[in-house]
Amino acid sequence: MRLAYGKPLIFMCKANAYGHGMREVAPCVPAKAYGVATAEEGALLRSYVSAPILVTAPRISNIPLIAESDLIPLVGEESYVCALAGAKVVKRCHIKADSGMHRSGISSPKKCYEAATLLAEGGVTVEGICTHYKDASKDTVLSQNARFDECVQAVRSALFARGQSVLPYTHVTSSGAALAARYDAIRVGLSAYGYENERRTGRRLTSAMEVFSEILNVKRLRKGDTLGYEGAFIADRPLTACTVLGGYADGMDRRDVGGEVIVKGRRARIAAVCMDTFEVVSDAVDFCVGDRVIILSDEINAQEIAIRRGSIPYEVLVGFDTPRAERRYD
After folding, report:
1. E strands in 108-188
2. With a threshold of 0.70, does the pTM exceed it?
């Protein structure tokens, strides 16, 4: 699978493939490599795919598991460099350079040079070097590229000096894909699941996830009737009210009150949210027990839900990854 810019894809499938189901999704996406957050996720993914698996948040305590599962840690902390080089059990790694996000990563070209040297002396092959953009603005990406280039040159110089003939490839996040096309590969996360910044790209992707439920109960409210604990909703006119399966234990959120779902092609307002169910109200009179309720789709996508929650699509998607959800894949 390749991006529009012709670059190999590093497919991020951490957090159970952003809530979509790593076991089902990852084997269907051919990629240069796969990305997870933890060694535990990587060990699980290793049973589904044979391609390289990058671990973006490795822990020193999990170095044995990384070695056992043939995972590739992204090394972005000096004490981890020392631990990895000293353990002499992990064959390969990537160096993560901090070019400006300041979340993790080795902070300067000089320190990148020192890290590459120590890793090479410890028998660890540095196969790649990467960074993460803090946002997708042109100025940010260009300034981070400049800093990253210095780190890349430092790492390659250190490895060349120690006889590593195959120099590490470079990869960055897809946030600034057009300006990142100069690098060897692009890591793709949220956009692989159907979301990106429409204002920046001028296009809207197709959401990979849809969430449905069904009506458990239908009743008529009179003006003044209430719904939910402590009368959270008070009807201002006669309304149809429906209890829908799924509450805040299933990915709904109390901040969804006032938002909408779709029933029989019409939008209905969310009036209250409990642990296992939520209430919707409508002027419609033809809703029935068993009717399908569309919670998330292309028509009401994770971006719309995130805006009403004051959140982001990432949090919305992983929130629906709950044990009680029944998964279906087309």
Report:
1. 125-130, 169-173, 185-188
2. yes
In tens, the pLDDT along 13-37 reads: 999 999 999 999 999 999 999 999 9
| CA–CA gap between residue 34 and residue 83 (Å, rounded) | 24
pLDDT band at 1 (very low <50, low <70, confident <90, very high): very low
Q: How many CB atoms lie within 10 A of CB 93?
A: 29
What are the tens digits of pLDDT across the range 101-140?
Answer: 999 999 999 999 999 999 999 999 999 999 999 988 899 9
Q: Where in the chain is the domain with CATH 3.20.20.10?
A: 9-201
Buried b (16+ CB within 10 A) or exposed e, 49-75: beebbbbbbbeeebbebbbebebbbbb
CATH topology (fold) of 211-319: Lyase, Ornithine Decarboxylase; Chain A, domain 1 (2.40.37)
Answer whether 261's CB lies under 8 Å from 267's CB: yes
In this structure, which amino acid lies at residue 289?
A: V
Exposure pattern of 224-243 as b/e (b: 16+ CB <10 Å)?
A: eeebbeeeebebeeebbbbb
Rounded to an integer, what is the distance from CA 148 to the centroid of its chain?
Answer: 23
- Phi then psi for residue 228, to 5 deg, are 85, 170
Tell me yes or no: is domain 9-201 CATH 3.40.109.10: no
Buried-exposed string 13-45: b where 16+ CB fall within 10 A, e elsewhere: bbbbbbbbbbeebbeeeebbbbbbbbbebbbbb
> Distance from CA of residue 64 to its chain's centroid?
26
- Cβ contact 131:151 at 8 Å: yes
Amino acid at site 222: R
Which helix (H) or strand (E) element contains residue 72? strand 72-75
pLDDT in tens, 217-270: 999 999 999 998 999 999 999 999 999 999 999 999 999 999 999 999 999 999
What the block records as the tokens of 222 is 């009179």
Both structure tokens of 272: 């209250």
